[in-house]
Write a structure and sequence with these properties.
This protein is 80% helix and 0% strand. It has helices at residues 5-22, 32-51, 59-86, 90-114, 117-148.
Length: 154
Amino acid sequence: MRLNESKIDIAMQSYAKKWIKSTNQQRVSTTLGYFFVGLFILFWSSSITTFLGLDLKNGYGALFFVFIGISFTFITIYLNKLMAKIGLKRPIRSALFLSALIGPYTYLSTYNAWNLPVISHIAGFFASVLTFILCYILDTFLVSYLEKTDYPDA
């Protein structure tokens, strides 16, 4: 059964109207925190794969690496969408992601260097807070710059 040409045109016009209305909505766009999360996903996927004794060059190791990477990516996207639904703005989400990465790594590196757990926790905490503040300021500046230049993703 062939559809009538006018029904197809009406369907396309309604879809085009919905799409045009959706262009004014805020979109999730890439910023500093999201960039580093992508790099850390690759790092964690390869580290977990080699930690479990799988070789990245072999079939099972490569398959496990891809599975872990895709899983972490979907978890990150889900968390980002969840924070957006809660009402957190893009610069806050980006700063949260980046500070959640930097703090634990600062703690681990200072603990391995000094073997002082309390000082390492303090250093990791302050690194998280400082990273959050700097990333938030930078991303807020980028958002205000994009709004001044009438960029659609701001």
